[in-house]
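Chain A, query sequence.
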Amino acid sequence: MSELLKALGSIPPSDKKIHTVCIDGKVVVVSLAEKKEILRNGEKAYYWISPSEYKLKPPPKPKTQFSVLVKTEKGYTFEGGDIHWPNGIKTGGETWLTESE
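Chain A, predicted structure.
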């Protein structure tokens, strides 16, 4: 048993550490700086441009929705023109409608 331990002790330690990342199911060897960058953004945030080149996906554009006061066939009447005080419903009034950008 001591011979085995001596043999294991005589093996020199590896100087090189191999850094790998998995982008779209493909494992790639990268430098330490590249691995830190990819892990910071997440592996799913990258895609392949060519078989040897990958790139960060652009961030998604937010789809903003907001309400707009629009004249409609049937809508609200407001107290003194103040949109926060609806009085009642009438023909040719105004209504809040959601629009997306």
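The beta strands are 19-23, 26-30, 46-50, 53-56, 65-78, 86-91, 94-100. DSSP finds two helices and seven strands in the chain.
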